[in-house]
Specification:
Elements: E1 14-19, E2 29-34, H1 37-49, E3 53-58, E4 75-86, E5 94-111, E6 126-132, H2 141-162, H3 166-174, H4 179-189, H5 194-202, H6 206-280
Helix pairs in contact: 2-3, 2-4, 2-6
Length: 283
């Protein structure tokens, strides 16, 4: 799969969808529950006016209900809305399936209105001016393949230890030959914190992307190895304690058996002596 080269192109604003605790990357599909009015209106407008395209960006403060430019990151992803459906139990919420297309830098955010080329008398929503900001991949085919193979191996170990559907995810990763797509796929599924995931979208330094992911996966692999060793040591100690307890109990039982036998032998000896005394008719 070919890589995009960095380019700068300005186009018309897009409706903006702000997300909490989620970073959406290019190439990735994700299902979201959307309930805030500005966001629901933005999705409705995108489906009717912008060919299902919407600009998705993460909030800095995920606890805030308000959507403001100061609380939004400067980089986001232009996405395609694949489908929407009502929420089963909340009439004010919808479920949206989106797919990331390309990375962008946000230049300006404002409410749709008379000065926005979308028309008048619309339900309130936010729109954003943006600049497309593709990430360059300055690697030859051999370097790219080696990097992809290394990331897939690290991710396979991580998934096997921490993710429920590890085999399926590993198979998907193994089929990816686009380095950026693979990195975004991995970043979506690992347990990095929100800020670290956003930084992978903020920077266009490929080496930074690779270092962040490899260091994180290697660290988690080492932690898993140490945890496994500790678990094995605890299990062995428990087994030894159980074995020792069993042997001690067995020794107690054997000693009890031997004591009973000794008591029986002593009684028999006394009976024999009494019989011999009577037979000898001693004075």
């Amino acid at each position: 799969m070919s890589q995009d080269t960095t380019e700068t192109s300005r186009i018309l604003p897009l409706p903006l969808l702000a997300l909490r605790d989620v970073v959406v990357y290019p190439h990735m599909q994700i299902a979201l529950f959307v309930g805030r009015e500005l966001s629901v209106n933005a999705i409705s407008w995108a489906q009717n006016q912008t060919n299902d395209r919407i600009l998705v960006v993460a909030q800095k403060d995920s606890l805030s209900e308000d959507i403001s430019e100061d609380n939004l990151y400067k980089y986001g992803t232009v996405c395609r809305i694949i489908s929407t459906m009502p929420h089963d139990s909340d009439d004010n919420c919808i479920k949206v399936l989106i797919e990331g297309e390309y990375r962008v830098e946000i230049d300006n955010i404002e409410l749709a209105g008379d000065d926005i080329p979308f028309g008048d008398d619309v339900n309130e929503f936010l729109v954003a001016d943006y600049t497309r900001a593709d990430v360059d991949v300055p690697l030859d085919d051999n370097q790219r393949k080696n990097t992809v193979d290394a990331l897939v191996n690290l991710f396979a170990n991580y998934a096997d230890a921490r993710l429920r559907n590890s085999r399926e995810l590993t198979r998907v990763a193994e089929r990816m030959d686009d380095l950026l797509e693979l990195m975004y796929f991995i970043a979506t599924r690992v347990g990095m914190d929100m800020e670290a995931k956003q930084q992978l979208l903020e920077t266009d330094d490929l080496a930074h992307h690779i270092n962040v992911l490899t260091e994180y996966l290697a660290k988690k692999s080492a932690e898993q190895s140490i945890e496994q060793e500790l678990n094995d040591a605890v299990r062995r100690q428990m087994e030894n304690n159980q074995r020792e307890y069993f042997l001690n109990e067995k020794m107690k039982a054997i000693k009890n058996e031997l004591t009973d036998l000794d008591d029986i032998d002593a009684d028999d000896a006394l009976v024999e002596l009494a019989q011999r005394r009577e037979a000898a008719d001693l004075p």
